[in-house]
Write a structure and sequence with these properties.
73% of the residues lie in helices and 0% in strands. By secondary structure, it is an all-alpha fold. The protein starts with a helix and ends in a 16-residue tail after the last helix. InterPro entries: CstA, CstA_N.
Length: 576
């Protein structure tokens, strides 16, 4: 099947989901009302709270939630065939991610733009706040570990990409200094930064950087592991400096890269008229391969539904919403944008990397190979699409590697910083002041734990640990999404509106996540994985805790429905 056919079909489905389903959510579930002033107006301070044009806010929100995760997950999951992966991306985006991201913004806006953590305590209960902190702690730990491995693998496979990525740091700092000192808009400087970054790709091809000469062939000091250690040393420093110095200007550059990458994939597929050579369902997978049901639904988290989005939706986006009806465009359409990036990953790994079905089966011969080679497959696939547009293929591959590494590095920068906050907040609850009041010690803890996970040897098969860590990341991410959906469901129920649209993805996520955790736990115990098995068990306990808290909160909400409803049933939405 020509890949462009898949693009058109999915594009139509996403359009229908946005046009009709998000419209239903707007009117009947979230009851948007533009006559209500948003916190951006009522609490305006010109710093965090400021009314923002919905198109500008969409760009901020989309680039904040999108990254390497919707690339890596689908690139692994096509091991089971493109059919199951595509089905979950499309259905998850329309009926789960859109509901989750959209709802997190609305509920936060209705509660003075409070974060999902505060909302959990107020809407669900005090115990749920501790649950939230623990889930986020494990989520960020796994995020930082898996993305360090992603970047390390790409540096080893693409030494030509190392220099451009290194040069992006002083480039971003320079742009940040210019914007900060001149108080000018970020658009033009960041566009110039993208151009300069892509020019350095040619320099990287001339001066590839490899650590193979100082690394061991096996053991702890492999080339990838050395890169991982250096990455965490860098993120420790980056997490301590003000966000405007590096993180924000790098986000400006990467926001443009995100849209450029989507454009290259779409145009490359159209111009090259590439054919999908992967099977709809992989019937040649080894007999001992993990089952796609339920593991598919935690392997693809971002790109179908991601709990991390609720942190952004309630953390920054809700503070900038100009009017309530903008939440539909920013939240739901933002989820569609991430689903589109996941679609691009599926296309790259099923139509871009090879020309024949036999070659595809070689590239995805088993789950370990699929996991370890996922990002390289995406990079090579996007490189092929860029080559369709006339870019030399060697340069195109480096371009794709730079895009993925940039996304992953930004996620690590943010992840380690957020992890430090969580460590300090947990330490404050248990009254360990030596950690809660010491930024350096909290930062070291935030770096050390994921570093240890990233350096764990594979469970008998090199590379398999990455696939396992990715699934544990996915389960924790889905637990975060489940927690956010439970908050939304309780709020909707209290306001006497039908919560089915929220409860269906909530129940589905909890069932699939719990099932996947049990499945993995049995495997870890059988293989004597005494680091991963306890970690899986802890996350399983959190999943059960989430089920209990959500059930109790929903029961209370049904009992008091209408007592604290904050608005009547709407008759007309200001903007449809």
């Amino acid at each position: 099947m020509p890949a462009i056919v898949m693009v058109l079909i999915v594009g139509v489905l996403f359009y229908l989901g946005y046009r009709y389903y998000s419209g239903y959510l707007s009117r009947r579930v979230y009851a948007l009302d533009d006559s209500r002033p948003t916190p951006a107006h009522t609490m305006r301070d010109g710093v965090d709270f400021i009314p923002t044009n919905k198109h500008v806010l969409f760009g901020h929100h989309f680039t904040s939630v999108a990254g390497a995760a919707p690339i890596v997950g689908p690139a692994i999951a096509v091991f089971w065939g493109w059919g199951p992966a595509l089905l979950w991306v499309v259905a998850g985006t329309i009926f789960a991610a859109g509901v989750h991201d959209f709802g997190a913004i609305v509920v936060s806006v209705r509660h003075k733009a409070q974060s999902i953590g505060t909302l959990t305590r107020e809407v669900v209960g005090t115990r749920a706040r501790v649950l939230f902190l623990l889930i986020i702690f494990f989520l960020l730990t796994l995020v930082n570990a898996v993305f360090a491995v992603v970047i390390g693998n790409l540096f080893v496979a693409n030494p030509e990409a190392v220099l451009p990525i290194l040069l992006e740091i002083p480039l971003a700092i320079g742009i940040g200094q210019y914007i900060y000192r001149t108080r000018s808009a970020a658009l033009v400087p960041s566009l110039i930064g993208v151009v300069v970054l892509y020019v350095t790709i040619l320099l990287g091809q001339a001066l590839p950087i490899s650590l193979a000469g100082i690394a061991a062939e096996d053991g702890l000091l492999t080339e990838r592991n050395i890169w991982v250690v250096l990455l965490f040393a860098y993120t420790f420093v980056a997490s301590r400096i003000p966000v405007w110095v590096l993180l924000q200007p790098r986000d400006y550059i990467n926001s443009h890269q995100l849209f450029i990458a989507l454009g290259v994939i779409g145009l490359g597929v159209l111009v090259g008229w590439d054919t999908i050579v992967a099977p709809v369902v992989n019937d040649q997978a080894p007999a001992d391969s993990p089952s796609w049901f339920p593991l598919l639904f935690v392997t693809i988290a971002c790109g179908a539904i991601s709990g991390f989005h609720s942190l952004v939706s309630s953390g920054t986006t809700s503070k900038q919403l100009d009017k309530e009806s903008d939440a539909r465009y920013v939240g739901y359409f933002g989820a569609v944008g991430e689903g589109s990036l996941a679609l691009g990953s599926i296309l790259a790994c099923t139509a871009g990397i090879v020309a024949t079905t036999a070659d595809w089966h070689t590239a995805y011969s088993d789950f370990a190979t699929a996991s370890d080679g996922a990002t390289s497959n995406f990079v090579n696939g996007v490189g092929h699409f860029a080559a369709n547009l006339g870019v030399p293929e060697a340069t195109a591959v480096v371009f794709a590697a730079v895009v993925v590494i940039s996304f992953a590095a930004t996620t690590m920068d943010t992840g380690v910083r957020l992890q430090r906050y969580i460590v300090q907040e947990i330490a404050e609850i248990v009254r360990i002041r030596a950690i809660s009041r010491n930024l350096t010690l909290a930062g070291l803890i935030a770096v050390f734990i994921p570093l240890v996970l990233a350096l764990l040897p594979g469970g008998g098969d090199a590379g398999y640990t990455f696939g396992v860590l990715w699934q544990l990341f996915g389960t924790t991410n889905q637990l975060t999404a489940g927690l956010a959906l439970s908050v939304i469901a309780v709020w909707v129920t209290k306001n006497r509106r039908n919560p089915i649209a929220v409860l269906v993805p909530l129940v589905f996520l909890v069932v699939m996540t719990t099932w996947a955790l049990i499945d993995n736990l049995i495997t870890f115990v059988a293989e004597s994985e005494w680091v991963l098995a306890p970690l899986d068990a802890i996350i399983f306990v959190l999943a059960v805790w989430l089920i209990v808290e959500a059930a109790l909160a929903l029961r209370r909400a049904r009992g008091v429905a209408g007592d604290d409803a904050d608005e009547p049933e709407p008759t007309e939405l200001t903007e449809r």
